[in-house]
């Protein structure tokens, strides 16, 4: 089996043992300790086997270069980046390969994960990438104090921003808050031990959970919801002490919580939807934490998103075709036909007329509810599956994240035909726009170069950024 440059020992083991299907990877290693996709799949080691000269092989670096210097943790500011420092702090001038050559090698050798063989290769032949050259967001800061992690290699919604300064993300067994203003970290929830609710709600498991393996996360409107590998849902209201609600949605063998969508209903009440591998979508009231709806589908549900008018839900999962369903009863309104593999991402444009889906065939597709016979646009990536999609709140941009190295920002005003490409190295744990669209955050997982990248919306007069 192909050795992916960035995939971990655990992920490769899952791929070999189970054909890579997420429904079979509920247990990481069968032991007491969690394994968070860390070993020989990170930047510090990938070149030992794949490229001439070890990236940080002590015996291969220049004699006058100290090994510890190469791996020293340093943040990078926009001013330093403008002077030529690598945004991730990678010392290319001291290595045996240039950034340009390594980028070429990565693109040539990266193996896209597929459930349907050759889906990405077929789309590569069918589609051309949209024009690069957009300049919508500019690099602001990279902090290596932040150490994002990934538990499941197909599930990458693990970074959320509640303001342009406040970011929540998964790091090992903890949900961590990062303040970009004070540059401080604080632990919000730790799942390595016992977590139990302080409040009493019908259906809540008062005994709570122990050693929950978190597969997905959502933070919005002062609500944090974490989903687990065994169908667990843990809810915390950010301005209240402790946990408010714990439940296990299913005892099905395929119980992974794949995605969570938090939103306001038409009356302004907070709701959330949980997409699960037991082929179900569940909607909860976040005020009383009661189950409102339970919709079942023919295949595991990987992601859902609700339309701005709250009438329609996009449902994608372990099927080449997606669905558009009625939010009141789960009945099928239309099928979304065109993708060649399984989908793991979806998002609605604020206008409520268009939405997007992301697939392991390396493309995202844009759809118009007024004509779903074919997609409006097919947007091809560089390396692999589309794992996350976000629209800006003003609808001007669509953010598309690949599993590693690339985030694309498409201009909706240009009909998605122009894009900005953010280029870095590392597995992407999640992407998040601040509610005001001013900041874009990208979680990068790597043993040495794990970090949080921050970009700021570009302005015609750069000095305005200092006033924000």
Report on the architecture of this protein.
Helices cover 9% and strands 38% of the residues. The N and C termini lie far apart (50 Å). It is mainly beta and 468 residues long. The strands form seven sheets. Strands 1, 2, 3, 26, 27, 28, 29, 30 and 31 form a nine-stranded mixed β-sheet that branches. It has helices at 9-18, 46-50, 67-70, 78-82, 99-109, 119-126; strands at 76-77, 131-132, 137-143, 159-161, 166-171, 174-179, 184-190, 194-195, 209-210, 214-220, 223-228, 232-237, 245-248, 257-264, 270-276, 280-285, 290-296, 301-306, 312-317, 322-326, 332-336, 343-348, 354-359, 363-368, 377-380, 388-391, 397-401, 404-411, 418-433, 439-445, 451-457. β27 and β28 form a beta hairpin. It has two domains: 9-117, no CATH class; 131-196 and 254-467, YVTN repeat-like/Quinoprotein amine dehydrogenase (Methylamine Dehydrogenase, Chain H, 7 Propeller), CATH 2.130.10.10. WD repeats lie at residues 336-377. Keywords: WD repeat.
